[in-house]
User: Fold this.
Amino acid sequence: MIEKTNMDAICEFKSLILSELENGINIESNEVASCQLSVSSDEVRWNIILRINGELIDSLSGVHIGNSTTYNLSINSWEIRSGKHTLEIEIYDGFGKLIDSESETIIIKHSGWNIGISSVDISSDNQDITINMRRENYDQLLDIHCVLSASHTQGEWSGIWKIDMAKGQLAPTLTIPLPNITSGDEINFNLNCAEPWHIDDNVEDNTYTFMIPNISAPILEQNEWIWGILSSAIILICAKLLGFLELKPKKKEKRTVSTNDKSISKPILNKKEISNEPKESIHLEDDVKDISEETYNEDKDIDEIAEEEEIVEVTEIEDEDIDEIAEEEGSDPDDIDAKINKMMSRKRYYD
Assistant:
């Protein structure tokens, strides 16, 4: 049967010492914790253990009787390393029963390194902004997780991006579209890393304030005019190539039409007029010849097809005239033959 322990104990860490450890300050004492044993009328065996990350760093044991007593625990045997560490204290009695326990987590910052924002630039076309970052002794940045955050001073826009500060041989850069913010307003950028890389050698360069410059409106309007002119030129060229746009009229077609009009407007002798005026039939040959010569001189530039139609038309008129004259002057066959020969010679002239 295990005997009940007639002793109480309280253990606690010294917050000031732990704070100095986290900030990289040289501590004057390595005693990081203390345990106080209460008054006991009986002799009680006890054992106090200090572990860091599960590793035994310090231990005390003894027999307590009488007044309360305080015992200190130190980290003299522990090599201080940067990073996240868990400290644990446990106190047991002589029978192995846990009387009290306490734990604390500390983060000791890395030293000899630095990250920050060197500059923020806007692109030549005023469309993007580039955040340039810098780093020092980045080769020791193991398992580091950094975040770049941005916020508008008026609260209209914000953003957050993950940044790998340990990657590559050059410091990382980030290009983002220019937010829709009024010219003259400011954007605050902050570069922070997760623990234990949350504190570097220079905290001031982890922030940067960028002011949106004045963007000239005429530049944008000029670009729109240029695009409008280029688009119009392309449309006209395509229309010309496809045949939808004809820049010069066809002169030859107009000449053909005018020729047809002339051929239609030429006077055609009426059979009835010839039959009613037998006396003027003698002069018909001369009149027709004069008309034909004038027509020939006027239309010498007309196409061959129009000339052939004209000649056929005149020939038909002559044939009809010859037949009618032959019918009316049947009493004088010699005169009729002479006229026919004369008409046939004129026909050969036209041919």
